[in-house]
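Archive entry. Fields below.
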Amino acid sequence: MTEGLTAPGAGWRRADGPAAEARGKRRRRGGRRGGGGEVAMVDDATFTSYYGRPIVKPPVWKSPDVPLYLFLGGMAGSSSILAAVADVTGRPTLTRVSRYTAGGGALASVVFLIHDLGRPERFLHMLRVFKPTSPLSVGSYILAPFSGAAAATAAVELLGWFPRLKRFGGVVSALFGGPLATYTGVLLANTAVPSWHAAHDQLPYVFGGSAMAAGGGVTMVFTPVAEAAPSRRTAVAGAAIELAVMHRVEHDHGIVSEPYLEGRPGALLRAAKACTAAGAALTVVAGRRRAGAVVAGVLLAAGSLLTRFGVFEAGLVSAKDPKYTVVPQRERLAAKEAAKLDGHASTITR
Amino acid sequence: MTTISSASAAFTGNDPENRLFGPVPDVTGQSGYETDHPARVGFFTDTSVCIGCKACEVACKEWNTLPMDDSHGVRDVIGLSGMSYDNTGQLGANSWRHVAFIEQSRAVDLPMPTFGRPGDDRRGSGPSVAEGENDGSLAAGQQSSVLNAEALSEFDPQTGQSGTDKQIRWLMSSDVCKHCTHAGCLDVCPTGALFRTEFGTVVVQGDICNGCGYCVPACPYGVIDQRKDDGRVFKCTMCYDRLTDGLQPACATACPTQSIQFGNLDELQARADARLATLKSQGVETARLYGRDEDDGVGGAGAFFLLLDEPEVYGLPPDPVVTTRDLPSMWRAAAAGAAMIAGVVISSFLGRRP
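PREDICTED_STRUCTURE:
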């Protein structure tokens, strides 16, 4: 009998699509009959899907709302820490600039997050329960105190009122700043989106590094170079971390790393890398000159922004193509079967 | 007073082992219901007897007053998918049952093969008329039919004169929300809009949902979706309103072939095991249960299936895993990342001031 009956699925293939094409070719080649023509078809079919339709639903989050939220939240988070330490160590201009950056970023990120909701008027429902299993719930409890404290600190900085309260607000926002910058990595990774989930232990570091590059870069632009040394060091360290961990995201995960390298997200991430690397290099070389600091800071912020867009869009690509859902799961099953080889396992699909 | 928690069992203090995945004997009790709660209910969808009539889809739409949509979930649009009899296309906010149609063929070198039927995919399967011939000497049969096979090789098998080189079969399967033991949508919902009912099912409360959309990519099966003009998310409720009145869900009531069976989950599981054994004994070796295994990535599904081919053929993930299984590791990475930021920023202030 044909080899089809010994193949998985007893040789059944979809009646249209690649199967039909393979048959057509076979006929033109001159009448090799039966299973012979099907062999090539089996080789083509590295995975099967339901008419090429996605299995997991792509996120309904809007672009640019969510990538901008990721960027602004990160920038504000790292700036708030810069502000608090600059305040303690007596760098008044860096303190002021960092507080404005943190406050502005916090307010804008809240606006983008609420605008992304399907029912924005219900944004307070985010705070009706606390769920550690939901990164968005945890994130809401990070973002709410952070944005309140950071915005209030920036406001009193602007108005020049309540100096002691200002320092307190700055410390509160700094406490929540780090988690705000990294929880967004968990937010994306804790989904069934293949390319995000596979990188679940790396995205928080990518976003943390990216946040430092952005916060350091933006504060560097608006602070006199004599006071901006901490911004420069933070930005360069953040850029190095972002580039290093992003390299692992792009190469450690086999097929689900593909979306990070190809197409539009790949182009975005290549641009991000170029901006971040150039910004970091320029910071080291010319960061102590005004013009150099401005250009480097803008490049670093642009790199961070592009990273967020690139990672976001790579996730969308991986969710829309069933290949990225089926192939890794098949590999996982094969590994499980190989590890176990129990008779029972063959009857039940795991 | 009982507090019904919308958090995963791992965080409610009811589970000493702090599990985010794996089997849970009493998922309803673990959500905070008293011990006298109803038994966990579910669907067993036996695709081997599905005739693709879509009565389940219609009954669901009518009972739940779901709006019309096309095969991409676009509302109030008539759209043909152009790929099969399936113009529903997918599960989504407006389609809570979705009948998948898969037309398959396979090559056979038999002189008189049986005509394709679901499950009739093995030599000697079932009480087939042609069983005797199939089981006979294949080589002899092939040799004697060479002329005949050549002559008929261009015939369309669907005409019924399928004599030569192809068999056709149709797979039909009514897909639905799996009401997982570890439901990703439920775990990640930040508002508590998604909750576990006293029947062990997972339901969205429309007056709580604020449309954050987190559940949509969290579902490993791609079931739940956002209704764009409404903003909120919708999915199968297993007819929660009917269950509370002692009725069966609309789809199971409408199904004319008992392909969709509703009942207590443990009874359905026993029934499914028996059905699988029957099919296997009839030679349907590709039959398998999907979502039945409590050791799978979602702790077993409340709605499970008997399939006749690999899950991905039906648009189902072959090895779904609830995303929150890896959440502890993610939170550790986020905490370490936050500490890293603080450390880097603070150390950036060290050293000589210029």
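CURATOR_NOTE: Chain A touches chain B through 111 residues (CB under 8 Å).
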